[in-house]
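Figure 6 in text form: structure in, sequence out.
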């Protein structure tokens, strides 16, 4: 096995972050089974002076949609980044609690 990073998406679910310095996209699997692999995408703005981020939008995407969105945003210049905020509970968990 080589030490090079693969351009292929991971086979198992993983959390990932993209940023352009002002806005951040956070991807994380919400449920993962053999038939359904939805990914929750949270979009937020980075605030100055270490203030909490301004979370603007959350939605659930299919794995395929999430991979296409990731590729599009990478082509537009966004770069992987470390986590920018502590993610809220997944949408599927919050719906189950309602």
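Output sequence:
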């Amino acid at each position: 096995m080589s030490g090079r990073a693969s351009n292929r998406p991971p086979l198992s679910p993983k959390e990932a972050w993209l940023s352009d310095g002002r806005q951040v996209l956070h991807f994380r699997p919400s449920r993962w089974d053999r038939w359904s692999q939805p990914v929750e995408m949270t979009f937020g703005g980075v605030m100055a002076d270490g203030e909490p981020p301004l979370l603007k939008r959350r939605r659930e995407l299919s794995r395929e949609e999430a991979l296409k969105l990731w590729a599009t945003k990478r082509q537009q210049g966004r770069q992987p980044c470390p986590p920018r905020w502590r993610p809220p509970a997944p949408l599927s968990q919050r719906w189950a609690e309602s």
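Caption detail: Helices lie at 63-75, 91-97.
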